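Hi F.,

I've been meaning to write this up properly since the lab meeting, where we talked about keeping a consistent format for the predictions we share between groups. The idea is simple: the sequence comes first, exactly as it goes in, then the structure tokens exactly as they come out, then a line or two of notes. No screenshots and no reformatting. I'm using this chain as the first example so we have something concrete to point to.
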Amino acid sequence: MKRYILVILSFVFILAGCSNIETKADADEVSDILKKHLDVSPYIPKTDYEIGSVILEYYPSDGNDEDREPFYATVNFYDSTAKKKITDEKDKKIWNDNTPDKKLIYGDIYEDKSKISIEIYPDSHVNNINIMDSEEKNIAGHEVQYQTIKHNMDGESSETILMSINFNDISYIIEYNDQSNNIEDGIKEVAENIIKNNI
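Output, unedited:
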């Protein structure tokens, strides 16, 4: 009898694990979701983190909301320990109602800061995205703008690196907050993947 119960429990855990995997959108699926809203197929890099949310940002309303097109989209990556702030459909609706210029189109709103955040701008709205006080760097044969921001909170020091990458039909801003590895190598790897898949 005990063996029978263990077999059933094992089967239940396997099914739960499979269903969890099936509900997570991968980078290609998120790219397809964004194509419907941005009219471009952005390359979404694969990282060690899960895609936790995709948010569209619109120009401020002029009263004609039906014709509004999104200005850009933000894809946020989180680690498995991130705390979700909004989880049910009712709360998501409240969030959408209270942020009229933003729309959550995938995932949840998280309490924690994302490890990686990527803003994606189609060229129909903007030609080049510039970061103030940045420096130019060459990554994978492509010129990018690069800025390091140092933080000190409660005696803990950390860094955020911002990088802007512009192409003919699309622009990206990467915000990289992962302190668990070499932050410069981490953002460079993400940038190289984006550059190689946009040239």
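Notes:
The first strand starts at residue 50 and ends at 58.
DSSP finds four helices and ten strands in the chain.

If this format works for you, I'll send the rest the same way.

G.
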